[in-house]
Design a protein that fits this description.
The chain contains 14 helices and 13 strands. A hairpin with a 5-residue loop joins strand 11 and strand 12. Helix 6 packs across helix 7. Helices cover 37% and strands 17% of the residues. The strands form 3 sheets. The protein has an 8-stranded mixed β-sheet with strand order 3-2-1-4-5-7-13-10, with helices on both faces. It is globular and about 50 Å long. It has 360 residues and is an alpha/beta fold.
Length: 360
């Protein structure tokens, strides 16, 4: 996820040294003995009976939480908890698709399809995609992969009804284009009907609840997109869960990567800590903790966690302005919308997420 409006709030605040050291030692112990934790171990609750089919829609390359979320999903695939059907790139930064490919290959999942938004390419040196590609190599570029809409349609058309969870951890233009797509050789259904038939749930990391303004994924520099997407999803009757800014900003992860061998995950996080405009002033040679907005959304999408880590608020609906400001309007559940409220200790969630990113 790229920078939010309230960047100062996203910077790591003071934390009791004992608690931080305890979590770091716990994750370091895991790193020294990966593969010894059973599926029902300390990294989270019992894995699902069958893998959760997921499409990840991401603005990978800006904030490191997108990288962490992708690696989490790849690790959850290895645990038999998730099936990552595709990665859709909202970002058009030149090294984003190659870096996603490098990450997938490193973790043994080069077969995962990648889609890209075909709106021109650009490059920004502080983003971490190039650092990953230069360290680990890549075989795919944005020009080599299909556009997001036909890839979405192909995958959804081939899946059973009501089976796919779409997780969006970036702005929502790719999803809007899918919803507005027409029938084609892949499916006779237009976009809304295809999503209504095939998608079990859309998990959106975005907004701030019960009210907020300027959150990046809801604004994205694309006026009206979020409002149009949420309206279309509501009209199609697709269950939609919001994992807001206020959850991920409290869950700080990343420092544990200082204690493990180099990987695309650690290389990306280190580049982000050193070069991201809102992080570099705090950088002193080690990877910094960062907010875990996107990892929280992935964790909910695959493991649920309602009643354990968060509660679900579903009495009402969300209102979004054209600029992406939002508020929750309490009332009868006339729309299939809800948002999560964090109830667990953020340190507990940080440990769960870091262990999953490291393969525990």
């Amino acid at each position: 996820m790229t920078p939010r409006r309230r960047l100062a709030r996203a910077l790591r605040g003071p934390r009791a040294a004992g608690r931080r050291a305890g979590r770091r030692l716990a994750v370091l112990g895991l790193a020294a003995a990966l593969g010894t934790i059973p599926a029902t171990g300390a990294a989270g609750q019992t894995q699902p009976e069958s893998p959760v089919p997921v499409i990840l829609d991401t603005d990978f390359g800006g904030d490191a939480d997108d990288l962490g979320a992708l690696v989490m999903l790849l690790r959850l695939m290895d645990r038999g908890e998730a099936e990552l059907l595709a990665v859709m790139s909202w970002s058009t930064e030149r090294y984003t698709v190659p870096a996603i490919d490098a990450v997938n290959r490193y973790y043994g999942h080069s077969e995962i399809p990648i889609g890209s938004r075909k709106d021109g390419l650009w490059h920004e040196p502080w983003t971490y995609g190039r650092a990953i590609v230069e360290a680990w190599g890549s075989r795919r570029t944005a020009e080599d992969v299909p556009a997001t809409t036909p890839l979405y349609r192909r995958i959804l058309a081939g899946r059973p009804d009501g089976s796919v969870t779409v997780v969006t951890i970036g702005p929502l233009l790719n999803l809007l284009r899918l919803l507005e797509s027409g029938p084609d050789s892949l499916s006779r259904r237009e976009g809304r009907a295809l999503v209504a038939a095939k998608v079990r749930e859309v998990v959106i990391m975005g907004g701030e609840f019960p009210a907020g303004s300027g959150e990046w994924n809801f604004s994205g520099g694309m006026p009206g997109v979020t409002r149009a997407v949420l309206s279309a999803l509501a009209e199609a009757g697709v269950p939609t869960t919001f994992v807001g800014y206020e959850i991920g900003v409290r869950i700080r992860t990343g420092r544990a990567l200082n204690d493990v061998p180099p990987s695309p995950l650690s290389v990306g996080y280190r580049h982000f800590s050193e070069h991201a405009p809102w992080m570099q002033a705090q950088f002193s040679g080690e990877i910094l903790d960062n907010a875990s907005y996107d990892q929280a959304a992935v964790l909910h999408a695959v493991r649920g966690g309602v009643g354990r880590w968060w509660t679900r608020v579903d009495g009402g609906h969300v209102e979004v302005t054209g600029s992406g400001d939002n508020r929750w309007v309490p009332g009868p559940p006339i729309l299939p919308q809800s948002y999560l409220e964090l109830t667990a200790d953020p340190e507990e969630l940080a440990t769960v997420i870091e262990r999953l990113m490291l393969g525990g």
